[in-house]
Amino acid sequence: MAKEEGRQEIQLRGPVRPGGSGPDEPVALTRRQVRDSLWRVNALAALTFAVVTMSRPLFSVFAAEDLGAGATGLGVVAGAYALVPLFLSLPVGGLISRWGERPLMVAGSAGLAGGLLLAAASLSLPWLVAASLVAGMAQMLMVVCTQTLVTSLGEPREREQYLAWFTTATSAGQLVGPLGGGFLADHAGFRATFAAAAVLCLGGILLARRVHTPPTPGKAPELRAQAGRARELLALPEMRLAILAAFSLIFSLGVNQSFYSVYVTRVLGFSTSTLGMLLAVRAVMALAVRAYMRPLVALAGGRYRVLFLAMVAGAVALGATPLLRDVASLTVAAALLGVATGLTMPLSMLAAANSVPAAERGLAMGVRLTGNRLAELSSPLLFGPLAEWVGLGPAFHGAGALLLGAALLSLRWRHGLDDADRLAAEAPDPAPARAGTRRWGASRRKQLARGAGGPGTPGVPAHRAGD
To answer: Does the keyword Secreted apply (predicted)?
Structure first.
């Protein structure tokens, strides 16, 4: 049993920092370091999402009410937040390979604070667009870095639980943020709310500075090489499954985010309090179900089955919404949609994390996030004209049908999460003894190495080819 100062170690097989004894030397993080990093990165994720959800919805309202922006201006403000991250997610994966997650998380927290302070000081629409641009890029940094870090800690058997805790933390932030933002905006105004959110980011900087991260290669691949490797990753069933599940859910939820409040308040005539209750039910269910992800996987007999059923549940909830007329049935649909969201996103992240060795996990998360941002941008382009042309009902039906079709299409790549099941079953218990190096199944080596077998294999960095 290997111990360091009486603490058990987790051995991470990977590259070492400059000055190490060699690229294949195992690098150990103690269990205490892993535990400390987990709670800090979870706290950082919760804080980041609380800050984002308390401030981002106010950008449009602030632009319209205080700066006199029209519909086009509001679109520019919203688009600036999401458009640039669409193109920068892949390069961020390379920066993680060069510098590691810690400095980028510090930069992300500082950038988010800077963007919010700029929003608080904005006297014209161009300044608010610039603030939206900075805040959007900073949030993208935080998302890619925190996801990469949390999927790089522990053995495959532990990774699922770590992701459940991580996504629970982000859901908690998303639940608390809008409540705090709305209260502050009502009582102190938009500028004070932006400033308060910026102050909270200082806590994120402190948390990020104290996170323990695995060593990095110290060298980032060129952008062209990253793009080529990203195309190779897209050929893996794990990545296809991860992107399909996340993209289809986010794309389909676009109709819910755009028209659900209109349907509940204007079409059905319910109060805004009822609308808030329905949204809270969805958020609480998304938060609660993640704590039971492991038992659900055991009950269903595999991660893919849970993912498939979650996507089908989301499709039913979305497609049935226009048929529901009473609060009870709407509550059931909201709860079902919350369960679908709470399970699909972490399982999608798990599929992406298990598709690559640790050195390329930042790139994999960047590829997945690019798909998510593309879904956010493209969904209104489809469902907006569709709802205007044929009405709200068919738009909801179409979103449900699209998500159901994606669930059926995912059957082609179900082995992506079957591999995760196998890796979890093969992994040794991370208990008193030193855990072995991460194990990648023979099929994974074949997919990554493309039939070659040693350092220098095309598509696999030399320092990771043996993993």
So the answer is: no
